[in-house]
Specification:
Strand content: 15-25%
Helix content: 25-40%
Distance between the termini: 26 Å
Oligomer: single chain
Order of helices and strands: EEEEHHEHEHEEHE
Shape: globular
Largest sheet: 5 strands, parallel
């Protein structure tokens, strides 16, 4: 671990241990369109209590949720991953689906993909015979594309703002999601309410 020499108060407590004192490793700046709600800079910091390095963003989770709802890069099939629209992405999603199926081989299992993007992983699970598929994504356009891709139920929302009355699932998928979540502890607690007694989470 690096030696902590210049410590400061964090904007965002450490997601792992909730420590509020951090060392700045790098100040990251961005050039953003005027309408983009995200901050134009944040510090990348190191937590001396547990060793985690993370983005100490001043933005709220609501700001990030708004960004993914209104400015989602995942809506663009040409430049994003998650929809299986390139051969490499299609292979990646097929392998992920096989990994999930190896743990939960029952094709009647109820599956929820939070942050489903354009539905590529749910479509890959459909190809393996799974039919009870639900996708949640902040972007309405992504929800519609997921619905077309896998024929399952889709709803607008996020891990921090889940649609009500989802019910319980045998598999909850968080693929490339947790790095977009500010309060990991609260989110992990939310997951427990979504699982059946033998349910699993794929991260």
């Amino acid at each position: 671990m690096p030696a902590a020499t210049h410590l400061q108060q964090a904007c965002r407590p450490c997601p792992v241990c909730a420590n509020n004192t951090v060392e700045v490793l790098h100040h990251q700046r961005f050039v953003l369109p005027t309408e983009n709600p995200l901050p134009k800079s944040f510090d990348v910091v190191w937590c001396p209590a547990c060793g985690l390095a993370y983005a100490d963003t001043p933005a709220s989770q609501a700001t990030y949720d708004r960004y993914y709802a209104e400015f989602s890069k995942y809506e663009d099939n040409l430049t994003s991953t998650g929809g299986g629209h390139s051969p490499a992405d299609l292979r990646r999603l097929a392998e992920m689906a096989k990994t999930i199926a190896s743990v939960v081989p029952n094709a009647s299992a109820r599956v929820l993909d939070i942050g489903c993007a354009n539905g590529g992983l749910l479509a890959a699970l459909k190809d393996l015979g799974y039919s009870d598929l639900v996708g949640v994504d902040p972007s309405a356009a992504c929800c519609e594309r997921t619905r077309r891709a896998c024929g399952g139920q889709t709803m607008a929302g996020s891990l921090q703002d889940l649609p009500p009355s989802l019910g319980a699932f045998d598999v909850v998928i968080l693929s490339h999601v947790l790095e977009h979540v500010l309060d990991l502890r609260a989110s992990v607690r939310e997951l427990s309410a979504l699982l059946t007694g033998s349910g699993v989470v794929y991260v």
